[in-house]
């Protein structure tokens, strides 16, 4: 561990490789490049401090640099112990961004990095999963008074924020970036769909075609995981608690059943619910020998690891990011990436072109909060449609795609109830 320039990182000698990674994603993030140009001119965050907690890899690093280009004093930390990339952290320190993060910290170190980030007394925050907001509303309320507001990245974080709002305890406005069209339609569906299988395939080096994949949860992330599993040649089973989503999965061509039944059939299991204990010991007892468990939800609580440990006679690491649990009857169950986000803990996360749109939304949403925080009030706020649509238009421009516009007569027709 290295303490340098008010930062805590693993190894500053790794910075050159981190710069290469950041340069690569910058070349493939044209929307964020356009927003950076605007920020460099307008300086929306001049004189302000911004704290960021996100999966700390190259795409996130470039978002931090874009916010910095808008005039902010930026501090960043990771939002998951196994997704932080040490070379990227070192590169950010060289670029003048304060960093408190390293790969695979202890739980105590991980918590301390979050607190160090908040002790910079930020005016604005970008959160992923709600850890920064939770600390500001519990043990470090003394640091919350200066916060104007922020933006939240994930489904899990939005659930936590809405619980805070419902209880009447939310102290500042938070924009629900996760719920924006340009986030969940693309990031959650195409980003998660591809990156989950990138992580599983590179980790296991096993074939997917002909196998049975159980996707637990059919939200936008689950839709993407199921779609890509089908494309790889798998038979796909979906489990759900929502009757409407279950019908949707059935209409999309997938088998739908309870987890108790699906547990008997799966070769691969992918959890994407945002909830805890969706795969439990009772399900593991039904699984076939060689079943592979993975999680693509934010926290490592979707697969009950305590109950898996209790069922096992022995445990060993058989390959990087693969733990083998041998059960008392001789069956083996494999857990990927300690049950953490398989696409980030065992991979590089979503493709750069996908995160280009999501992080563009983060950047413009943060500017919107800063401009309007007094009017927004202490609540969870939707991304304004015009910001969402503008990101989509910038994406189309980058792709060289033109679309139609309504004529004055067509607008009049749509606005009228008499024609």
UniProtKB/TrEMBL annotation:
<dbReference type="InterPro" id="IPR042172">
    <property type="entry name" value="Adenosylhomocyst_ase-like_sf"/>
</dbReference>
<feature type="binding site">
    <location>
        <begin position="217"/>
        <end position="222"/>
    </location>
    <ligand>
        <name>NAD(+)</name>
    </ligand>
</feature>
<protein>
    <recommendedName>
        <fullName>Adenosylhomocysteinase</fullName>
        <ecNumber>3.13.2.1</ecNumber>
    </recommendedName>
</protein>
<feature type="binding site">
    <location>
        <begin position="154"/>
        <end position="156"/>
    </location>
    <ligand>
        <name>NAD(+)</name>
    </ligand>
</feature>
<comment type="pathway">
    <text>Amino-acid biosynthesis; L-homocysteine biosynthesis; L-homocysteine from S-adenosyl-L-homocysteine: step 1/1.</text>
</comment>
<dbReference type="GO" id="GO:0033353">
    <property type="term" value="P:S-adenosylmethionine cycle"/>
</dbReference>
<dbReference type="GO" id="GO:0004013">
    <property type="term" value="F:adenosylhomocysteinase activity"/>
</dbReference>
<comment type="similarity">
    <text>Belongs to the adenosylhomocysteinase family.</text>
</comment>
<feature type="binding site">
    <location>
        <position position="128"/>
    </location>
    <ligand>
        <name>substrate</name>
    </ligand>
</feature>
<dbReference type="Pfam" id="PF05221">
    <property type="entry name" value="AdoHcyase"/>
</dbReference>
<feature type="binding site">
    <location>
        <position position="188"/>
    </location>
    <ligand>
        <name>NAD(+)</name>
    </ligand>
</feature>
<feature type="binding site">
    <location>
        <position position="350"/>
    </location>
    <ligand>
        <name>NAD(+)</name>
    </ligand>
</feature>
<dbReference type="InterPro" id="IPR015878">
    <property type="entry name" value="Ado_hCys_hydrolase_NAD-bd"/>
</dbReference>
<feature type="binding site">
    <location>
        <position position="275"/>
    </location>
    <ligand>
        <name>NAD(+)</name>
    </ligand>
</feature>
<feature type="binding site">
    <location>
        <position position="187"/>
    </location>
    <ligand>
        <name>substrate</name>
    </ligand>
</feature>
<keyword id="KW-0520">NAD</keyword>
<dbReference type="GO" id="GO:0071269">
    <property type="term" value="P:L-homocysteine biosynthetic process"/>
</dbReference>
<dbReference type="Pfam" id="PF00670">
    <property type="entry name" value="AdoHcyase_NAD"/>
</dbReference>
<keyword id="KW-0554">One-carbon metabolism</keyword>
<dbReference type="InterPro" id="IPR000043">
    <property type="entry name" value="Adenosylhomocysteinase-like"/>
</dbReference>
<keyword id="KW-0378">Hydrolase</keyword>
<dbReference type="InterPro" id="IPR020082">
    <property type="entry name" value="S-Ado-L-homoCys_hydrolase_CS"/>
</dbReference>
<keyword id="KW-0963">Cytoplasm</keyword>
<dbReference type="GO" id="GO:0005829">
    <property type="term" value="C:cytosol"/>
</dbReference>
<feature type="binding site">
    <location>
        <position position="183"/>
    </location>
    <ligand>
        <name>substrate</name>
    </ligand>
</feature>
<feature type="binding site">
    <location>
        <position position="153"/>
    </location>
    <ligand>
        <name>substrate</name>
    </ligand>
</feature>
<dbReference type="InterPro" id="IPR036291">
    <property type="entry name" value="NAD(P)-bd_dom_sf"/>
</dbReference>
<feature type="domain" description="S-adenosyl-L-homocysteine hydrolase NAD binding">
    <location>
        <begin position="188"/>
        <end position="349"/>
    </location>
</feature>
<feature type="binding site">
    <location>
        <position position="240"/>
    </location>
    <ligand>
        <name>NAD(+)</name>
    </ligand>
</feature>
<comment type="function">
    <text>May play a key role in the regulation of the intracellular concentration of adenosylhomocysteine.</text>
</comment>
<feature type="binding site">
    <location>
        <begin position="219"/>
        <end position="224"/>
    </location>
    <ligand>
        <name>NAD(+)</name>
    </ligand>
</feature>
<feature type="binding site">
    <location>
        <position position="343"/>
    </location>
    <ligand>
        <name>NAD(+)</name>
    </ligand>
</feature>
<dbReference type="GO" id="GO:0006730">
    <property type="term" value="P:one-carbon metabolic process"/>
</dbReference>
<feature type="binding site">
    <location>
        <begin position="296"/>
        <end position="298"/>
    </location>
    <ligand>
        <name>NAD(+)</name>
    </ligand>
</feature>
